Amino acid sequence: MAFTAEEVAYLQSHPLARLATRSSEGQPDVVPVALELDGTYFWIGGSGASVLETRKFRNVLAGNAEVAFVVDDMVSFNPFIARGIRVYGRAEGPIERAGMTGPGHFIRITPTVSWSWNMEGEPVGETWYESHRVVH
Asked: Binning pLDDT at 50, 70 and 90, where does residue 48 land?
């Protein structure tokens, strides 16, 4: 799948995401993570062997490859301006590489579908939601 130039710029300028994974028992887990987009894949991870023991890595290593994450921000409360991107994808790893947090172990996410909202940063009004729905 492809992101628009505007979405890529947003994702590369907002490296904090909230990643959701699922345990083998079906328990969802969400955690804030540093996120890197290389143009094709998203990368989440860090240095040291302890990252391999985190719940997100354990869930992916257990074969639960379906993940979701959101990158968003609140531009203003008055007027109310929020924007963001939600991504579903397939995770694999761990993969050793040097990422934005240095060398370490990373999960590679291949995006499969995404939704973005209000990349323009417009104030939200009553008709905004229906006129600004974007699905890739």
From this structure: confident
